[in-house]
Amino acid sequence: MPRGGSAAISQALAEDFTAHGGRIEVGVHVRSIGELKAATGARAIICNTTPRALAAMAPKELPNRYIRKLESFEYGAGVCKVDFALSGPVPWKAAELAKAPTLHLGGSRRAIAFAEAEVLAGRHPQNPYVLAVQASVVDSSRAPAGHHTLWSYTHVPAGSTRNCTEDIVRTVERYAPGFRDLILASSVQTARDVAGYNVNYIGGDIASGAVTLKQLMKRPIVSTDPWRTPAEGLYLGSASTPPGPAVHGMAGWFAARSALKNTFGLPVPSLRF
Predict the structure, then answer these.
(1) Residue 191 C-beta-side C-alpha neighbours within 13 Å
(2) What is the largest CA-CA distance in the chain?
(3) CA distance 60 to 54
(4) What is the rounded distance in angstroms from the CA atom of residue 7 to the CA atom of residue 28?
(5) 60 vs 81: CA distance, rounded Å
(6) Per-residue pLDDT of the chain (273 residues; tens, 9 = 90+)
(7) Measured distance CA(1)–CA(187) in Å, rounded
(8) What is the rounded distance in angstroms from the CA atom of residue 51 to the CA atom of residue 195?
């Protein structure tokens, strides 16, 4: 858990980037790869977008066959996210959970599979799977003394407008009776809200593409170098490429390696642990 929130990670990356001569510009809507190249003179461009956005930005640079592959990329379920401000720690029935920053709530493997199947069928499950994070148990800066936070999300059909606050509260209550009484305030983002917050979250899909066996092999195309596009100097380095979502930063790492090799003719660094 980064102290102070995930923004601390972004800030550290930004500071390292600018220390090495990088420049960061925000608030600019990039609509065309051609215009971006003309404005920056960049030899290599690595896009942290979904395949659909890349296709829209580079219709002149990319061949039609490749664009059709990008446009056939499938997106998954959305999420409804709810943040809670609490007057005390979550009263878990299993005391060990009080020290766990991240929890996956949903019962047995069969119960979770059933709930997820309901979502993929376009329904809101009665007993949803919930991912919850109680960062304040390890980071005291997240809440005032004696108080805590809990942020959570549950999967919902893509584009859903359902407010799942009560669904999530009910699920947490199954494992922590009395949770409801600790809630001081809550803030919800429906799947539609999540999609509006970030255009890469199509339908509220924060994984930037359905995580199926097919799409782990075809992300977004079947290739030994799926980060490299047919356009010279153009790469895709988002969660829509291998190794996919949740392996944070590695898609960009592999895209950068590909750019070093194919655009700049430089040796590529290896991973060091």
Answers:
(1) 23
(2) 61
(3) 11
(4) 20
(5) 37
(6) 888 888 999 999 999 999 999 999 999 889 999 999 999 999 999 999 999 999 999 999 999 999 999 999 999 999 999 999 999 999 999 999 999 999 999 999 999 999 999 999 999 999 999 999 999 999 999 999 999 999 999 999 999 999 999 999 999 999 999 999 999 999 999 999 999 999 999 999 999 999 898 998 899 999 999 999 999 999 999 999 999 987 778 999 999 999 999 999 999 988 776
(7) 21
(8) 15
Burial 217-249 (b: 16+ CB within 10 A, else e): ebbbbeeeebbbbebebbbbbbbbbbebbeeee
Two tokens at 62? 């990319």
The CA-based angle 227-230-232, given to 5 degrees, is 95
Task: Let me know the angle formed at the C-alpha of 155 by 150 and 157, rounded to the nearest 5 degrees.
Answer: 145
Contacts of 3 (CB under 8 A, 6+ apart): 139, 141
Q: Write down how long the chain is.
A: 273
* pTM of the predicted model as reported, rounded to 2 decimal places: 0.90
The candidate with the shortest Cα–Cα distance to 221, out of 63, 69, 75, 71, is: 69
C-alpha to C-alpha distance for 94 and 89, rounded to whole angstroms: 13
Contact indicator for 80, 188 with CB cutoff of 8 Å: yes
